[in-house]
């Protein structure tokens, strides 16, 4: 396993820095474009939807490479909104694009993340959250069987930390 992390200011322009850090760190192996996409989406969500986007806020991007998968995690400053896959508003005509305005793209990011990942989840609460994603490395024999060495960590339910493990 290889592991890297970097903390960024919670400003929109720092999302591209997180993308660049991901590309430079992981390299140009096949499938790394998915890792870059996920890192960018999670970083953008941290800035847009959490307290990390407030003045002085920050988010931390964690990257790990295993034999059969990559893991991307973004830790943010939390906030009142819980990350979840939303059902985006259907776009049925050009008029809908004008009517929805900036919200035309809302709700699609985590759906995209979920579609390219083998597993993903959210830990934490309004005081701080971690959104993690696992992406199988294309062509890896172990990835084809979706076997895993497991994840361990700490889950925060708002009042107490609990140990957790995923098989």
Morphology call: globular
Order of H and E elements? EHHEEHHEEHEE
Low-confidence stretches: 143-167
The total beta strand count reads 7
Please give the order of strands in the largest beta sheet.
Answer: 1-2-3-5-4
The proportion of strand residues reads 25-35%
Helix and strand content put the structural class at alpha+beta
Radius of gyration from the alpha-carbon trace, in angstroms:
17 Å
**Straight-line distance between termini:** 17 Å
What would the average pLDDT be, to the nearest integer?
81
- Please summarize the sheet with the most strands: 5 strands, antiparallel
Number of helices: 5
| Assembly annotation | single chain
Helix fraction, binned, reads 25-40%
Structure write-up:
- There is one protein chain.
- With 167 residues, the chain is α+β, with helices and mostly antiparallel strands.
- It is 31% helix and 31% strand.
- It contains five helices and seven strands; from the N terminus they run E-H-H-E-E-H-H-E-E-H-E-E.
- The protein has helices spanning 14-26, 32-49, 94-100, 109-116, 141-145, and strands spanning 2-9, 58-65, 69-76, 119-125, 128-136, 151-156, 161-166.
- The strands form two sheets. A five-stranded antiparallel sheet has the order 1-2-3-5-4, with helices on one face. It has a two-stranded antiparallel sheet with strand order 6-7.
- Strand 6 (151-156) and strand 7 form a beta hairpin.
- Helix 1 (14-26) runs antiparallel to helix 2 (32-49) and helix 2 (32-49) packs antiparallel against helix 4 (109-116).
- The longest helix has 18 residues, at 32-49.
- The radius of gyration is 17 Å and the shape is globular.
- The two termini are 17 Å apart.
């Amino acid at each position: 396993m290889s592991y890297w992390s970097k903390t960024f200011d919670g400003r929109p322009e720092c999302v591209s820095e997180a993308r660049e850090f991901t590309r430079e760190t992981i390299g140009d192996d096949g499938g790394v474009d998915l890792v870059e996409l996920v890192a960018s989406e999670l970083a953008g969500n941290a800035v847009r939807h959490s307290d990390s986007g407030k003045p002085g806020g920050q988010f931390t991007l964690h990257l790990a490479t295993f034999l059969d998968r990559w893991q991307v995690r973004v830790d943010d400053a939390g906030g009142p909104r819980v990350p979840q896959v939303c059902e985006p508003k259907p776009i049925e005509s050009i008029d809908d694009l004008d009517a929805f305005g900036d919200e035309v793209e809302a709700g699609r990011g985590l759906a995209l993340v979920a579609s390219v990942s083998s597993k993903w989840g959210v830990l934490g609460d309004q005081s701080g959250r971690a959104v993690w994603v696992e992406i199988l490395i294309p062509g890896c024999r172990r990835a084809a069987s979706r076997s895993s060495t497991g994840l361990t960590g700490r889950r925060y339910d708002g009042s107490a930390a609990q140990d957790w493990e995923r098989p």
